[in-house]
Structure formats: C-alpha cells, structure tokens
Amino acid sequence: MPRKPAKPCSYPGCPEVTNERYCSKHQKEVESKYDKTSRPFKKLYNSRWYKLRKQFLLKHPLCEECKREGIVTAAEVVDHIIPHKGNEELFWDESNWQSLCKSCHDRKTAKEDGRWEKKGRVYAYDFK
C-alpha cells in the first residue's frame, strides 16, 4: 500500500520533511515542553494516588454536586475541593476531596482556571 508523501516539519523554520507532524529532532523538543508545562504536578498523581482514589470512590460512589441538585449520578473523579496547586499537604488531605462525575468536575475546573471568563474573548474579532 502506498504511503502519504512526506510534508514539512511543523516547527517554525525547520526545513526537514517528515511523515509525522514534527521531524524527530523537534518532536522530542515539543514533547519535553508539553510535559513541563501541561502537568506541573504530575509527580503527585504518579504515586499512590490511584490506589487512594479508587478506595475513596468505593466509599463515596455518587457525585456530590449532582446529589445537591437531587440527581443520582455515579462519581468518576476525586476532586480537590480547594485546588492544591502543588501543595502536598493539601493534595493528600482527604477532607479536601470530593467525588464528582466528569461533567461536574470539568465545569468546576473550568471556572477555577478562568476558562469561562476567556470564552468570549478567544474568538472575538475587531472590525474597525
């Protein structure tokens, strides 16, 4: 079966051609930048967190937000009520955890991150 023709590397100014998005040199660079910036607290989650999370969800199987609304929804995520932002004491404090469904967790996280305030500005055009 024929392969797609190689295309230029997506890294600005790179003359190399590749079958992927980036050439092998720039792929490593892009991945290392992504890892450093996207999940700065990754080490906390790559620990005993998964075992504790599973135990917590077994004890608290319903979404707390939905329960407040009178809706019964299975919880999928253990959320930190007060965002820990790398504070290990706050991260491991079980009294700072709550069970949420993915929808409620994503909504809460978007509000905390300020993504909702930015929503209207991202695609705003100035036609002056």
Q: What's this entry about, in short?
A:
By secondary structure, this protein is mainly α.
Topology, element by element:
Blueprint lengths: L6 E2 L8 E2 L5 H15 L3 H4 L3 H11 L4 H5 L8 E4 L7 H5 L4 E4 L1 H12 L1 H8 L6
Antiparallel strand pairs: 1-2, 3-4
What do you see in this structure?
It is built from seven helices and four strands. It is mainly α. The chain has two domains: 7-37, no CATH class; 42-119. Strand 1 and strand 2 (17-18) form a beta hairpin. The protein is elongated and about 55 Å long. The relative contact order is 0.09. Residues 120-128 have low confidence and may be disordered.
Low-confidence stretches: 120-128
How would you sum up the global shape? elongated
Report the portion of residues in β strands. Answer: 5-15%
Strand order of the largest sheet: 1-2
Cα-atom radius of gyration: 21 Å
User: How many β-strand stretches?
Assistant: 4
The number of domains is 2
The overall average pLDDT, rounded, is 82
Helix percent band: 40-55%
Please work out how many helical segments DSSP would assign.
7
| Ends apart, CA distance between termini | 52 Å
Helix/strand order? EEHHHHEHEHH
Quaternary: single chain
Question: Tell me about the biggest sheet?
Answer: 2 strands, antiparallel
Protein name: Putative HNH nuclease YajD
Domain HNH nuclease: 51-106
Pfam families: HNH
Organism: Clostridium tyrobutyricum DIVETGP
